[in-house]
Specification:
Elements (H helix, E strand, L loop, with lengths): L1 H4 L39 E6 L4 H4 L15 H7 L4 H6 L18 E8 L2 E6 L4 E6 L15 E8 L16 E8 L4 E4 L3 E3 L4 E10 L4 E10 L8 E10 L15
Parallel strand pairs: 4-5
Antiparallel strand pairs: 1-2, 1-11, 2-3, 3-4, 5-6, 6-9, 7-8, 9-10, 10-11
């Protein structure tokens, strides 16, 4: 199991420069496309985390008090300073770092499949969690909070931000946007840095097709008016696997 967690380290120029879309700079926002891009057909299957950055926060448990890179409020710092993994385990709260706000940053494997024609299911082996991304706008908004919350998904035209000299993207250049609310309070970092039940998560997924690999890129924005002074931006990547031979479901752990 440990061997499966020591995942490939990649230093690929360009993979680290994924930017969240910025629409306002370029006038009126076009309506979301009704049809997915061609790369959506490659989403189902198995994916493995690429730990390209923040290795010491993602592959090992950082010490208490290490908040670097997270714009936490004074209230959040007080909570993080009292972090006790043994207490979390005793209170059956060992999944706090496996909620939607952090889980995609963990070292892990994904199994992506269609639960039905309008619901994408993302199973995660590290923590044995399942996320459901609803495309039909009928997700139960009054459901009780959960670790993975309620996620609505849509195919969105790529913003022109980041293109050279203000160039516009092609009409079929799209990414997958997932918005998540109704999350239980969890951790943004394994060492107890919190996000609250008021947190809202926006994720943008895109795919890079290389000669020998497919790379799923993710840019995440965590907006939490309770515990963050401003939104936290994160990015990571996943590499497509030929099969599920590395799939290794393990339970949540408060300390690894």
């Amino acid at each position: 199991m440990v061997a499966h967690r020591i995942l490939t380290l990649v230093a690929a120029t360009g993979l680290l420069a994924v930017q969240a879309p910025v629409y306002a700079q370029f006038g009126r926002v076009p309506p979301p496309p009704k049809e997915p891009p061609a790369w959506a057909a490659d989403l189902p299957g198995y994916w493995e985390s690429l730990i390209t950055q923040n290795w010491r926060f993602r592959m090992v448990t950082p010490p208490k008090g290490d908040y670097v890179g997270i714009p936490i409020t004074a209230a959040a710092q007080q909570i993080a300073d009292t972090w006790d993994p043994a207490r979390d385990t005793a209170q059956d709260q060992q999944c706090r770092s496996y909620g939607a706000g952090m889980i995609m940053m963990n070292p892990e494997h994904l199994h992506v499949s269609w639960q039905d024609t309008k619901t994408l299911k993302v199973e995660i082996d590290n923590g044995t969690q399942t996320r459901l991304w609803h495309f039909d706008k009928t997700a139960p908004g009054d459901s009780a909070p959960s670790w993975q919350g309620i996620s609505s998904a849509s195919w969105v035209l790529r913003a022109a931000s980041g293109y050279p000299f203000g160039a516009r993207p092609k009409p079929n250049a799209r990414y997958l946007e997932v918005k998540t609310t109704h999350m239980l309070p969890g951790y943004l970092r394994k060492n107890g840095v919190p996000y609250s039940a008021n947190a809202e998560l926006t994720e943008d997924y895109d795919m890079l097709r290389m000669p020998d690999d497919q790379i799923l890129t993710l840019t995440t924005s965590v907006n939490d008016p309770t515990y963050l002074d401003y939104p936290l931006l994160l990015s990571t990547q996943f590499k497509k696997q030929a099969d599920g031979s590395h799939w290794d479901p393990t339970p949540c752990s408060a300390s690894w």
